[in-house]
Model the fold of this input.
Amino acid sequence: MVSPELAIIPRHVAIIMDGNGRWANKRGLPRTIGHSKGVEAVRETVKAAADAGVEYLTLFAFSSENWSRPETEVNDLLGLLRKFIRRDLAELHRENVRIRIIGEREKLRSDILPLLLEAEETTRHNTSLTLVIAFNYGSRDEIVRAAAKLAREVQAGRLSPDDITAQMISGELDTADIPDPDLIIRTSGEERLSNFLLWQAAYSELLFMPDYWPDFDRNLFFDALKVFASRDRRFGGLSSKTAAVGG
Ligand code: FPP
Done:
């Protein structure tokens, strides 16, 4: 049974997994060890989210800006993602987890794109947690691609600029069929969104946690859910508490 503190479970939790490098530095270890420990935290978080009844979990695995890191680190990160999909796909599939990938796919290397597509294809009919992996993802790039699609519709005479709505823009994003995140968590004490789900975050609750990502675990995930349940979401209107007393 869900405890009363967790009475409101967010439908969609999105996480900026930050602090792998600092976790490793603090221990005098190479950054790559921080990333490997980060994958263990990913596994634990996916299980915790599924157990909690969260429907969508989005993880920021690799941003479109991450290509500017040293080549060895880029290769480490891609290698870890490849290994994660190869090793964990069967188990995720058994657990009825559906995998979705968001981000720019056009120019992705041939050693990663087919794996991502296979993960999506294999799990497409699964009905428990949807694990959304943001890979080569940048929110501004996603919005630019959506704007370009609508501009082409206008150019072709199929759409008038005056008829463009917020829903139409949402419908052209990579997340078109995914609800907006209710809760966005960033670990490591940094307090910014770093080009992650900017459009979709309009009414998300933001939670900045001091822990480095490799230390993130089931308990911290449930702590985050408790904070979320205690927040008063107003979506630009009045608090449900205020409204209830007629104030
Ligand atoms: C931030 O730490 C983390 C990343 C850039 C990547 C996160 C990737 C993983 C956890 C591994 C692969 C993902 C999956 C879904 C299997 P940082 O290197 O920016 O840390 P720092 O800010 O302390 O240097």
In short: The beta strands are 12-16, 56-63, 98-102, 130-137, 183-186, 205-208.
